[in-house]
Design a protein that fits this description.
Elements lengths: L16 E10 L14 H9 L3 H22 L7 E3 L13 E3 L8 E7 L2 E11 L7 E8 L13 H7 L2 H8 L3 H21 L11 E3 L8 E4 L5 H4 E5 L6 E8 L10 E9 L1 H8 L9
Parallel strand pairs: 1-11
Antiparallel strand pairs: 1-5, 2-3, 4-5, 6-10, 7-8, 9-10
Helix pairs in contact: 1-2, 4-5
Bound molecules: coenzyme A.
């Protein structure tokens, strides 16, 4: 075989990389005292700034759950787990939460989302293969509006035009009326999960992303401004329960070779017991 023989490298020779992602589902806690002790002063200020009680509960529950899960791995009480949520656009603390200062050499990737009665926390890391590979994760859940069976409300026209391209809008329009809202939110959650995994959030135009259609396996098909985007994104559909739609995306490192074989393993769980356990004990004792 000559050194220039390009057939020499066979993708089967790359070790399989396993990315494990634990997805924890919870209902917002109704008693603020259950989560307030876990919040730092920045988080407390954000919490207090929410006008509506349900927004405060979703925010506080997500933070508590994320800190409980990360603290359990690191042997720290939740209040000692720091999440840096500095927005990379404006510097305010409403961006992607990144665990900082954990004793582990490879802190996991984290993503949070909340909507209606659902709070979801995704924790991802590589567990086999390219173990040093840093992945990031994005999760999104959206509640279907109560009137969703009546089709897409006209108030969504602007959002639809801004987030879906012509072809995607046509696909949603051709769905039976009762499925159009869910179809649109499937596109939305898939795109938002990708943009959360990349850390851009809604600062990036959703229309530039093309994702697979509702009913098909979730995939990023095209990204106009990032030609190699689809190669680095792996996606999964989640099961948030009736009345909700949710998606998850994992971003692989830049040097992910074309031949990388990636197995994305999703474990979905209810966080009910974790939160109930935490509620029964003083927070400082919740270590490991
Ligand atoms: C992040 C964003 C996509 C959230 O969408 P949403 O459907 O309203 O809310 P979700 O519950 O699904 O997700 C919110 C969570 O996403 C996370 N998040 C925020 N910015 C993020 C980013 N750039 N990348 C990844 N995750 C992000 C946070 O954990 C946030 O929850 P928290 O603040 O309670 O911790 C959207 O609000 C956004 O892009 N915001 C930034 C854009 C913006 O407001 N720019 C103007 C000021 S710089």
């Amino acid at each position: 075989m000559r050194a220039t023989d390009t057939t020499f490298w066979n993708s089967d020779w790359y070790p399989e990389t396993v990315v494990e992602c634990h997805v924890w589902w919870a209902a917002p806690l109704t008693d603020p005292h259950a989560y307030l002790p876990a919040l730092d002063t920045t988080e407390r200020a954000r919490h207090d700034a929410y006008q509506r009680e349900e927004d405060r509960a979703r925010f506080g529950t997500a933070r508590l759950l994320a800190k409980l899960l990360l603290g359990r791995e690191a042997g720290l009480p939740p209040a000692e787990v720091e999440l840096d949520a500095t927005c990379r656009e404006c510097g305010r603390p409403h961006g992607r939460p990144v665990p900082v200062g954990l004793p582990a050499t490879r802190p996991p990737a984290l993503s949070l989302s909340h909507s209606g009665d659902r709070v979801v926390v995704a924790v991802a890391r590589t567990v086999q293969g390219a173990l040093s590979a840093e992945v990031t994760v994005g999760v999104d859940v959206e509640r279907l509006p109560p009137e969703h069976a009546l089709g897409l409300p006209p108030t969504l026209d602007g959002v639809l035009a801004a987030s879906l391209d012509e072809e995607e809008r046509r696909i949603v329009g051709e769905l039976p009326e009762a499925d159009r809202c869910a179809g649109f939110l499937t596109y939305w959650t898939r795109k938002e999960a990708v943009l959360k995994a990349t850390g851009e959030g809604l600062t990036a135009p959703m229309r530039r992303l093309r994702v697979s259609r509702p009913g098909d396996r979730p995939r990023l098909l095209r990204r106009e401004d990032v030609p190699d985007g689809p190669r680095r994104i792996r996606m999964a559909e989640l099961r948030p329960g009736p009345g909700y739609t949710a998606a998850l995306a994992v971003l692989l490192p830049e040097d992910a070779a074309d031949g990388w074989r990636v197995d994305l393993r999703i474990v979905e769980r209810s966080a009910e017991r974790v939160l109930a356990y935490a509620a029964q004990r003083p927070m400082a004792t919740l270590v490991g």
